[in-house]
Amino acid sequence: MRTCEHYIIDCLFGYKGIRRLSLCLGVMLLVACNTTKFVPKGEYLLNDVKVKVKDTKDVPAADLMKYVQQKQNTEILGFWKLQLDIYNTASEDTTKWTSKNARKIGEAPVIFSPELAIHSCAQLTKAMNNKGYFQAQVDTAMEEKDRKLNLTYEIQANQPYYIRRYAVELPHEELVAIAQNRRQTLIKEGMQFDADLLNQERQRVASAMRRRGYFYFDQEYIQYQADSSKIKGQIDVKMKLNEYLDQVEDKDKIFRKYNIARVFFHIDYDPERIPKDEEMFTCSQDGYVFTWVGKKLLRDKVLMRHCPIQPGEVYNEYVIERAYVRLNQLAPIKYVDISFEPISADELDCHIVLSRGKLNSVSAEIEGTYSAGDWGVAAGVGYVNRNLFRGAEEISVDGRTSYEWRQNGGRAIEAKASAELKFPSSVAIDLTYNFQNRPDEYKRNIFSAGLNYTIQQPRIGLNHQFHFVDISYVYLPWISDAFRNQFLQSTNILKYSYENHFIVGLGYSGNFTSFRARNPHRSYWNVMYNIETAGNLLRGLAKPLRFKVDEESGNYMLFNTQFAQFAKADVSATYNQMLHPNHRLVFHADFGLAVPYCNSQTIPFEKRYFAGGANSVRGWAARTLGPGGYKGNGRLIDFNNQSGDVRLNLNVEYRAKVWSFLELAAFFDAGNIWTVFDYEAQPHGVFRWSEFYKQIAMAYGVGVRLDFSFFIFRVDFGVKLYDPALRYDGSGKQWRTAPNGLNWKDDMAFHFAIGYPF
Questions:
Q1: I need a labelling partner for 346 at 20 to 30 A (CA). Which of 134, 196, 243, 367 fits?
Q2: Domain limits at 46?
């Protein structure tokens, strides 16, 4: 009997499907051949634009593309102008529905403009001058064919200019000291002239002045004087005050230090609310003044504790930045605005406007699942209160349950409930309960509790989280005889994971990002890491407190229950290479290692690694890859054996945004999991230096992402390229390539997920 799944596969990849696909591609090629359909007579389609710098590598051509005023139509995968092709499907009749939508969705052809090319040459020349190449020459090279034009901006940089002398001539002693600070200044004699670097130096000096109390000092008050007439290739640079300052009426205030007189908190400010609608309340304490309407949002002490701006202190720009960060971290606050009002010759009043955010929210979700012929449904609900005791305490409660109908007639049920209480002091307490009911297998209860402390450093994009206490108790009231005989024998890796046990640990995790919202099109890094240990404290207390010893395993027991002892470390790095505002190449690598010792022979099942799935090697379904060269037996419960202690993932993905809501992707994945020790139940699964690189699975595929602003829905289609499990079956067919070696039913996987894989 042919299933719906088989029909889809045949339609996509069978003989008929190939014919359909060929027909579609043929139509698109015909359309693509007519890319000049809407190009006016006597004009040219701007087909390709490049920048070439002939005699220096100090100024990358990619950095100069932003100065080009006219670029070719948007390209996908670096060559396919899909949006232009869609636009060209429109007819001359603009009243037709199909024509209207083709023009709306597509992108009109870019017609070459000589005026914009001239302007681009001027901008490129200016950009080269700013980098010290004052004799740079910019020319254009054009290739015309079939009403299409390829345009190349050819730059002859010539010799750069270097700073011979750098002098500071400023009238203020503290300003001079800041500018001449040799450890901090960005300008050195002998370095190549760079206008961007000179501007950064102005910003540094002005910011340093504002950190010392000079409220009115601005970078525009500083200018440079450059002289390149003395020696060819050499330039003298002088920092001085801007000449227009002589015309400013109150020039003295620029070099006057200011103190903070009072700090006003305008709480729960609503710009649309008329002040007379409600009574205004005011109170003051130690130089702080609080004003609010209605019920007060936050206690005074909470705001004072989280505001580094203090009455009587010298104005400091850095403190203001910290205030923005710390106040924005308060859960009930939607946004923060800080301003200053001069009240005397050397005093400022600080006004902090706090806008109320959404204090309570409820969320719900429902999803359907399909795995290996089994259908299921899952639903969840969540509640968040962001100001529990009027102290910015945030409590979140979540519940989720899933139900699965299995082919053998059984019903699998899983329910999970969790609660987390976060304090504005960055302390969090979390509780979790998980119930699993697998028919013909087991019933399992997992109780977890944790105490965490978070430190955020948004200025440098670094966050830290310390897990002071992390306790889990796994309780199994019932296990079927069949499951016990199959998986829980004394030689099986899972035996101790399916016995009652404690996990008592602590750890540290952190993440770093170089992404900056002010420059979203710049390439950036994301790095995450985690270290955790478990059981060391209990092991240290075992002998002094005379813990009971299990006769079979020889392990110590707490309350007649074994406890796990292990160490685990994970690191993940992702690099987003921005090729274009709508195109990027993403590289990802992650590595994990977990080692049991002393009181444990294996890592608890909850802490082990799995491979395959939407965020791993996408040619395999979730939890069906590895460890090493181990081949699963195809049973539903065999995923228990397909777990490991070592994880390696290597991924590269090209993402191209076609429209604001649609993104296409092409990817290559490699990776696997392994065990630290050689377990009988997992043949070929242990990590060995001489073998592991031969056991790295590989897959490739394509994907679609739909951006709904509040979440990204992702569909990925992965195909196996190299299956390490087939190295050991004698077939020699570990390389899965079409048309002979590839089995579309067994060697491909569809994945549906929310968010990016990395």
A1: 243
A2: 4-156
